[in-house]
Design a protein that fits this description.
This protein has helices spanning 53-61, 113-118, 123-126; strands at residues 7-13, 22-24, 26-30, 34-35, 48-52, 75-78, 89-93, 97-104, 128-134, 136-139, 144-149. With 152 residues, the protein is mainly beta. It is globular, with a radius of gyration of 14 Å. The N and C termini lie far apart (33 Å).
């Protein structure tokens, strides 16, 4: 790993929807499904969720009692300019896994505990959703890179 590398800082899954995800050492991504054992798997185009670790850091600075996984993100990634991504971009995680960005941000139907405590939540603006193009094992420390952008 080199300075400037984009890395997976934490992998998180949950067995139920609507709760923060829990850290796991590694997890298997299944093509066109999502994380094995995760409650959000198989959910159409939002099979995997990603969030910048820097966004989590900012919420902590603003007084939120949160950590990686608190926003129900599967992959907390450090060093990525998520604002520069667009729908259709493909990301390689480690050597094998490929994800395709399908959505940026999401509508919150109700105010979460984080919003109520701090007056803001990052997932509606900064959460990234993807589908699994090629599955495999992911773990913290893996490098993430843009591999191609699909034409739309």
């Amino acid at each position: 790993m080199n300075d400037g590398d984009v890395i997976i800082e934490q992998v998180s899954i949950s067995l139920r929807r609507g709760i923060p995800k829990s850290k796991v050492d590694e997890a298997r991504l299944i093509e066109d499904w999502g994380f094995e054992g995760d409650a959000h798997a198989g959910r159409g185009h939002r099979q995997v969720s990603l969030l910048a670790a820097e966004a989590v850091d900012e919420m902590i600075r603003r007084g939120a009692v949160v950590e990686a996984g608190s926003f129900a993100e599967n992959l907390t990634v450090r060093g990525f300019d998520f604002a520069a991504l667009s729908v259709g971009v493909r990301l390689r995680c480690g050597g094998d896994v490929v994800l395709e960005v399908t959505q940026i941000g999401k509508e919150c139907h109700s105010r979460c505990a984080i919003f109520n405590a701090v007056g803001d939540c990052v997932m509606p603006r900064e959460g990234i959703f993807a589908r699994v193009v090629r599955g495999g094992i992911v773990r913290a420390g893996m490098i993430v890179a843009v591999v191609e952008e699909q034409s739309r």
